[in-house]
Amino acid sequence: MLTTPTTRRFVLTEKQVWLLITAMVILLQFSALFVPILEPDGALYAGIAKTMVLKHDYWNLYADGYDWLDKPHFPFWMTAISFQLFGIHTWSYKLPAILFLLMGAGYTYRFALALYDEKVARWAVCILLTAEHLVISNNDVRAEPYLTGLIIAAVYHFYRRGILLGAIFTAFAIMTKGLFALVPVCAAIGGQMLFTRNWKELFHWRWLLALLLIALFITPELYALYTQFDLHPEKIVFGSNGVSGLRFFFWDSQFGRFMNTGPIKGAGDPFFFFHTLLWAFLPWSVMLYAAVIIFIKKWKQQTEYYCICAALATFVLFSLSRFQLPHYLNIIFPFFAILTAQYILSLYSTKGLQFFRITQYTIIILLAVGVVVIDLLYKPAMHYAWLLLAAALFFLYLLLHYWLDKSTKQAVFYRTISISILLNLYLNTILYPDMMQYQSGSTAAIYANTYLPGRAVGLYQANSYAFDFYLKAPVIRADTASSLVFTTPEGTAALQQQGYSCTVLKSFPHFYVSKLDLPFVRKVTRAGALGERQLVAVGK
Questions:
Q1: Strands 531-539 and 501-510: what pairing?
Q2: Cα of 99 vs its chain's centroid, Å
Q3: What is the pLDDT of residues 367-402, one digit of tens each?
Q4: d(CA 381, CA 433)
Q5: For helices 74-86 and 41-55, what crossing angle results, to 10°?
């Protein structure tokens, strides 16, 4: 009697699928490691750390050749260490920030595991590392990747009653962004004790010890500010002398921005972060809003309040502030990720699962269409390279279809992650690398390094932090002409009117890539959106 041989289907477990996908989203964070640093803020911060290393001065911050008073020192110290170890490069500027973010992902896993279970912890990590603005911030690196990792680490250690480590991470967060870094940490721990009515723990002496340790650990920042500014009232900062670095740190940089009374002002909108979150937390923003609403509806049934208190207290504070930027919310994304993961995994009813599937598949379709539309509008040099990414995504979809039941939450979840990987690989490996040819400061500096090596260049009526960072020669900042200048066509004309002979060595298209608009994105209208910068040889 003949028997038909049975074929054994190779099926990965859900944990094995998670490990594979997690490895991919971790690698995704490094996909923009070699993309030139964006102006203005990223290039400014890179230039400050570069100056630290070149001057061997780690206490004073300088920008534009002057004393700089704005952000605390910790991110610059981390970047300077990276520059010392690996040299001054694009990737060595971004690397420490990405590592701090990944540390935050690790603590997100540990915190979610302690509060809920292993599956919530796994999914929270994937949600965090595919949240759109978090991935963008690993390209346009500022202070937020550091702060994201430090705050969740501080909350986790305080949750575990690890006062020493909690105080260290909190102090590092304060030395990254200022006193407002205390808000999510204190709200998480205090909110939990308040809503569980754990009064004995709330007024325990260990929190006084934690406060004293934090004060001790931020003394390097206070010393740096005091020696650079308070000891030198003659220095001109914000257009006046007698500016106190300590006062700025404790008041003007935080409460001054909040109330719009400090030297750095903005114009806030109470609803700014409500609509910002819709794109910043893609592809999970709808699920996040649903998670918060359901959490509040079932407030008395909840077992933990750490995440909701940290997230909402910080969200409300930023919404009331008069100074607002989209990346401010990144620091509470770990808490958002845990809330979102717990909510998705709690969906068991037919109606709830249908809501999840329809929402996420709609977002998947919209993001896929969005990538195609952007590519057709912009038409990068690697115009068809996205097809390779699409093919890779399709292959991943087939594997997921093979490994997982397509109707399950797992299948929908991992397919959502796949579209996020496609979108951000397209941005970081095709779109942004092509756009950076229009950041004139970095392209001009690279040109000067190649064809005019070692020549000092003056910035004349054309400031560029990217030029300052990438030029491997002295940069002269003065209102007078030097023998070689980086300037605008109007600057060249002004020099000629002053009697100088000017020879344009090279012209560079100019656009602030961090401030995209439709005329620039559309290839047919891009020429009209571009400015011009020039490298000019100047003679008597």
A1: antiparallel
A2: 12
A3: 989 988 998 899 888 766 666 666 666 666 666 655
A4: 10
A5: 60
